[in-house]
UniProtKB/TrEMBL annotation:
Its EC number is 3.2.2.31. Residues 54-202 form the HhH-GPD domain. It comes from the Bacteria. It catalyses: Hydrolyzes free adenine bases from 7,8-dihydro-8-oxoguanine:adenine mismatched double-stranded DNA, leaving an apurinic site. Belongs to the Nth/MutY family. It is an enzyme of class 3 (hydrolase). Binds 1 [4Fe-4S] cluster. One of its GO terms (molecular function) is purine-specific mismatch base pair DNA N-glycosylase activity. It comes from Devosia elaeis. This is Adenine DNA glycosylase. PANTHER family: ADENINE DNA GLYCOSYLASE (PTHR42944:SF1).
DNA sequence: AACCCGGGGCG
DNA sequence: CGCCCAGGGTT
């Protein structure tokens, strides 16, 4: 079933986009400015890769501090590859989507072991590495090597949906958008990719569109119609189920907290937690991990991508014996643990700073 | 193709 | 509170 052609036959005006970028590019820690790029300076693929992985489903503002921390600790891909996975997970704590951190570490090791510490120079080869998919492979290849490839991310989904006044969810026309964008990629492919993302982040933003300043004028259909905020059309979304459970915060007489590791697969894989019950639709009776004077410290609510979690928080002072698999952490050491935000909320609810 | 996987910031 | 964000892996 062939889909309808896009309503806007005009290719993107790449020279106009690049001219806009030359004077309006965002200054980002991992970026080589268009002026420096023209002077012959090349981006470091390691830094570009690291930034792109961190930026997957994560805002620029949230990434900056993590990027500087990572590049300070591990300036080269060899350094990251040689680091223990635990330390990478610890440094990643708070960024979310923790599979990214595991793939990041595996990718660094693959680059060192299988490519002599040099990132492959093509989009296709990059995509065979862990954690590098269609978007990230194209982005690295364009930015670092000026491969003339379409770089299509969430920003571009929105910009192109408006450009074409696309009246179906982007998912249903993804390949047509990609082909149309591909036909517009100029010689300065890396700057073009970054320019389009900057456009989406500043001018063609989710809740505002400053069309008068946009270099995609006058070809943009939504701008011509004065309806940019109608796009992209959103698909129907499913309702979020609620799950409930208990979390148990145990301290010993010295105030140390009992922690353990989550299983290596599944939700929050390999991250640190306090013991707890299963999470299910109905709240069960708390099965305390051991006998003690348990106190109910209230409830913590946390919203994941696909469900809402309500955890009852319990605390007790216990004698540290008969517990397997975990460890006792001093309260001052909690900041350095690989604790996801959920369990930092739980500890805070129990009166502990982390 | 559909589903799973966090967290922060914004209005 | 709902929406959005420089998506990838799995099934």
């Amino acid at each position: 079933m062939p889909q309808l052609p896009l309503s806007n036959p005009h290719p993107i005006d790449a020279p106009a986009v690049l001219a806009w970028y030359d004077s309006h590019a965002r200054d980002l820690p991992w970026r080589v400015s268009p002026a420096d790029r023209k002077a012959g300076l090349r981006p470091d693929p390691y830094r570009v890769w690291l930034s792109e992985v961190m930026l997957q489903q994560t805002t620029v503002a949230a990434v900056k501090a993590y990027f500087l921390r990572f590049t300070g600790l591990w300036p080269r891909v060899e350094d990251l590859a040689a680091a223990p996975l635990d330390s990478v997970l610890r440094e990643w704590a708070g960024l979310g989507y923790y599979a990214r951190a595991r793939n990041l570490h595996a990718c660094a090791q693959a680059v060192v072991r299988e490519h002599g510490g040099v990132f492959p120079a093509s989009s296709a080869a990059l995509q065979s590495l862990p954690g590098i998919g269609a978007y990230t492979g194209a982005a690295i290849a364009a930015i670092c090597f000026d491969e003339p490839v379409a770089v299509l991310d969430g920003n571009l989904d929105r910009v192109l949906a408006r450009y074409h006044a696309l009246d179906v969810p982007v998912r249903e026309a993804k390949e047509q958008l990609r082909a149309a964008l591909q036909a517009s990629v100029p010689e300065r492919a890396g700057d073009f990719a970054q320019a389009m993302m900057d456009l989406g982040a500043t001018i063609c933003a989710p809740r505002s569109a400053t069309c008068l300043l946009c270099p995609l004028q006058p070809a943009c259909v939504a701008a011509r119609d004065g309806t940019p905020l109608l796009y992209p059309v959103k698909p129907e979304k499913a309702e979020k189920p609620v799950r409930k459970g208990h979390a148990f915060v145990m301290t010993d007489a010295a105030g140390d907290v009992y922690l353990q590791s989550r299983p290596p697969k599944g939700l929050l894989a390999g991250m640190t937690e306090v013991p707890g019950s299963d999470w299910s639709a109905e709240l069960g009776t708390p099965a305390y991990p051991r006998e003690a004077q348990w106190h109910h410290r209230g409830q913590v609510v946390h919203v994941f991508t696909h469900f809402r979690l309500e955890l009852e928080v319990w605390s007790a002072i216990v004698v540290p014996d008969g517990l397997d698999g975990g460890w006792w952490a001093e309260p001052e050491a909690l900041k350095g643990e690989a604790l996801p935000t959920l369990f930092r909320k739980v500890l805070a609810q129990a009166g502990l700073e982390s």
